[in-house]
Amino acid sequence: MPRSSSVADFLFEPHAPVTIPIARGGLFAVRRVYCVGRNYAEHVVEMGNDTRDPPFFFGKPADAIVVGGADIPYPSQTSDFHHEIELVVAIGKDGADIASGDALNHVYGYAVGLDMTRRDVQAQAKKAGRPWDMAKGFDHSAPIGTIEPASAIGHPDSGAITLSVNGVERQRGDLADQIWNVPDTIAYLSTFVALKAGDIIMTGTPAGVSAVVRGDVLEGAIAGIGTVRTRIA
C-alpha cells in the first residue's frame, strides 16, 4: 500500500482549492472550466462568423475565477478588454458520453458569470490560426456569482440574460436563444472529455459585447438564477 502524502512531502505548500459560494450555503470546489464558443446567433454574426458552424470549446484555468463581487484588474497586453455575460452550469455528477436526455441529472446548479476577453489578443490569434489561451484564460478573467442549486430553482431554459456597465445596459438576450441548449452542450462536451463533479461550463454570450475601461462597474443578471458584479480596478 502506498503511504499517504503530507504537506511535508511537497516542494511547496499546495494551493488552496478554487471554490464558488453556493447560495443556500456551502462551497462548490472547481475542477475544470469549459467555455462554449459561438452559442448565440446574434453574437456569432457580430463576431463575423457563420451561424451554421457548431459551437466549440476552450478553457480557462480554475484560478481565473473571481467571486464575491471583488474588483478585477485591467489586464496587461491589451487595449481592447471586453465583457461577455454567460450562464454558468455547475456539474455535480461524473459522466462520459452522456445522453442528452440524461444530461440534466449531471447538473448541480447554475450561476451567472463573465467571460472577460482580451479582444485584440483574440483577433491576432484568430488571424494567425493560434490558440486563444492568452485572450481568454488569463488571471481574473472569470467573475462568477453564487451557485443556485437546481434542486431549488429547477433547470431554467428561458429567461432574460443581461449586462449593464455603469448602469447602462449593453447586452440582452434570452437563454432560449442558445443555439445549443444545456443538455445538448453537456452531451456533446462529454464525447470529448469525461466530465467530473466540480467542472463548470460557461455557455456562451448574447450579442452586445464591447470594451470596458478602468473604473467601470459591470452588473450581470439572469432571470431566475442570480447576478454577478465586478469593477475594473
UniProtKB/TrEMBL annotation:
<dbReference type="GO" id="GO:0018773">
    <property type="term" value="F:acetylpyruvate hydrolase activity"/>
</dbReference>
<dbReference type="InterPro" id="IPR011234">
    <property type="entry name" value="Fumarylacetoacetase-like_C"/>
</dbReference>
<feature type="domain" description="Fumarylacetoacetase-like C-terminal">
    <location>
        <begin position="33"/>
        <end position="232"/>
    </location>
</feature>
<keyword id="KW-0479">Metal-binding</keyword>
<dbReference type="Pfam" id="PF01557">
    <property type="entry name" value="FAA_hydrolase"/>
</dbReference>
<dbReference type="InterPro" id="IPR036663">
    <property type="entry name" value="Fumarylacetoacetase_C_sf"/>
</dbReference>
<keyword id="KW-0378">Hydrolase</keyword>
<dbReference type="GO" id="GO:0046872">
    <property type="term" value="F:metal ion binding"/>
</dbReference>
<protein>
    <submittedName>
        <fullName>Fumarylacetoacetate hydrolase family protein</fullName>
    </submittedName>
</protein>
